[in-house]
Every structure is written in C-alpha cells, then in structure tokens.
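Reading is simple: each integer encodes one residue's backbone shape. The lines below illustrate:
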Amino acid sequence: MPKKSSEFALKALLILLVAASSCGRSVAPPARMDLNDEGPAYALRLVSYNILSSLDVGSIFRGYLPWELRRGMVAAFLKESGADLIALQEAAPDQLHWLQGQLDLYAVAHALPKTTDALLLYRRDRFHLVSKGFWSLPTFESYSQQRLAVWARLLHKDSGREVLAVATHLDARRRIKRKAAHKLRHDIEEAVGPTGHVVLLGDFNLSADMEPFKHLLEGGFRDSLPLSSQAPTFPTLAPLNVLDHILYRASNRVFVNSASVIHPINGRLMSDHFPIEAELLLLPPVSGS
C-alpha cells in the first residue's frame, strides 16, 4: 500500500476508535484490530489511582469517607474499567488485602514487606510475567514508608510484545521529587535503554510545567493527556492540581486512543484524588527496524 494510503487508513481507524470510546465504557473497542498491511494493532487499557490510605485518619476531618464506606465504589470502578494494567498509590496493607479478594483477574507486583505505597496490577489472562521488582527512590527522612517505583516486565500474550510497566508515587517535597524523577528516568533507561517500550503510571506530585516532569518527558515519554486537555486530579473536594499521569514512549509506534480524568461516580467521592485512565493503541514495528 502507498505510504499516503497507509497513513490515511491509520488516521481513519484512530478517529473511529475515539468516536467509539466517547460513548462510554460499554462500547470498548476490541482488543485486536487490523490495519491492512500494517498488521494487527492492540489496545492497552491503563488506570492510575491514588486510593487514599486507610491509615490517613485525618482525611475524615478533611471531608472524606473512611475506607470501609469507599472500598465498594473503588473496587466496582476498577472492575468496570476493563483495565489491562492498574497502578495504585497510598494502598495500606489492609486495602491491598481486601482489593486482592475483589480483583481476582489481576496479579499484583509489589514491594512487600517494604511498602504497599505503590502497586502494579496486571491481568493474568492477558500477560505473562517475565520478571518484576522495584527501585527505591529518594524519600523525606521523617516519612514512614520508602518511596519507590514497582516494575514488571510483561509479555502480552496475544501480540507477543514485551512492555516494561512501572507504577510509582513520588514524594511531594520539591527537592526530593526532583531527585526522584531523575533517578526514575535513569533506572528505566538502565533497564530497557532509551527506546524500550515503557508505560509509566502514578501519582507524581508533579504538574506538567515543573522541571522534574519535563526531565521525564525529555527521556522520550509523552503524557497520555496533552497539557491543553489536562484537568486537576487533586484534591477532589476542590480540584486545583494535576498530579496524576499516565506516560508512554511514543518511539515504539504507540498512539493514544483516549485518555481522561474520571470525575465523581454518582456524585460520590472515592478518594482525595480522581482516577485517570488511558487507552493506548500499539502498532507493530516498522518492517526492517
């Protein structure tokens, strides 16, 4: 197929997928699509969510419900999202234990017994685990838990493509999160090089205009929500800050089909952060590359 025709077919497919996704989750596109001579393309659905720790008793006085009154909504949202990968932040051990009983389709990559502050959940039926681990990140001295990034090398069963999925929760202090962002980029590049396929999800405690976040983007990452489309994710009672992001490397013929900040379900807040979701479209590598 001529190059222009191939590009037209790709653009047309992306337009159709965006239109379908705008109708709600019940109209999710199939996991596999064909792009003529481009070959199969696969949808990868991602969710990142700071679920507000059950150990944060002060959150009740800030106007948020205790975990026991929120957890059913959180589990229902995660199930209905249809996500292939889920990054959770601020999960206390009791929250992880309860959610594991609800989300039986998912396996969990974690850093126990060190901390459950950052977790990565992946669908057992869609991925084969190659390896997993975590990287320690700079942490404020008086903080009770080590900040880190949990990672898993996952082989997508249908496509045979490997992806490094990374879930993180950076410290909120400016000096520390700058060091953390630089170390995170370094650790990822050491693991898969400057062009390996990576998705990076979490609560970065960074907005897109801050230097540490720009440093991550300079490492080849793109935000699934462009700056012009971003909406505040924290705090949910009076949203002001864009702190939560889903990043991907575009050098691997990856495109964003849809991305959004999920606002209150039935008017009820599930956390002090809004969850975010994205659907990426993975295309096969160019022949000969």
User: Anything to note?
Assistant: The longest strand covers residues 40-50. Residues 3-21 form the longest helix (19 residues).
